[in-house]
Amino acid sequence: MLILLAFIILFHITSAAFLFISTIDSAWWVGEGFYTDIWHWCFNGTNCTALDNTFSDYEAIQAIQATMILSTILCCAAFFVFIVQLFRLKQGERFILTSILQLLSCLCVMIAASIYTDRHEELHKDPHYAVFGVSGGQYGYSYVLAWIAFAFTLLSGVMYLILRKRK
């Protein structure tokens, strides 16, 4: 049982790390000479501009930012609740709240990545990009990590439900 708990703790910390990296790092959309994330876009690695209300479809960017931050907060809160519940609650009552928080984190990261997937065409046709001749590109590793974090948080949420019944 101790090995199972160690695996679950490591899995949860990995999920949180993926969420932090995908929320903070600048690689949601990359191309030749530019990269962008949910906070700013950079051309030639030095000319960085924050995404603000002058960009088209800024509401979608704000929704992505909010849900990614909420997902990260919920994942961290679920970890702290897990540690508290591990030592405070009796068997059979453990990890239900942790599972709920982790599944909510999963839902939030899925919403953020889905909005970005749906809106990336509109987000990257903004006139601000045309000034530098930015075109093309592909999804970056932060975007991929967001989807991996979705899978990890979903799996850990389910694992907490299963672990609730273990002795």
UniProtKB/TrEMBL annotation:
Family annotation (InterPro entries): EMP-2, PMP-22/EMP/MP20-like, PMP22/EMP/MP20/Claudin, PMP22_EMP_MP20
Record bears the keyword Aminoacyl-tRNA synthetase: no
Membrane topology classification: Multi-pass membrane protein
Transmembrane segments: 63-83, 95-116, 141-163
Record localization: Apical cell membrane; Cytoplasm, Perinuclear region; Golgi apparatus membrane; Membrane raft
Presence of the UniProt keyword Zinc in the record: no
Recorded family membership: Belongs to the PMP-22/EMP/MP20 family.
Subunit structure: Interacts with PTK2; regulates PTK2 activation and localization. Interacts with ITGB3; regulates the levels of the heterodimer ITGA5-ITGB3 integrin surface expression. Interacts with P2RX7 (via C-terminus). Interacts with ITGB1; the interaction may be direct or indirect and ITGB1 has a heterodimer form.
Name of protein: Epithelial membrane protein 2
Source species: Pogona vitticeps (central bearded dragon)
Lineage of origin: Eukaryota, Metazoa, Chordata, Craniata, Vertebrata
Name of the gene: EMP2
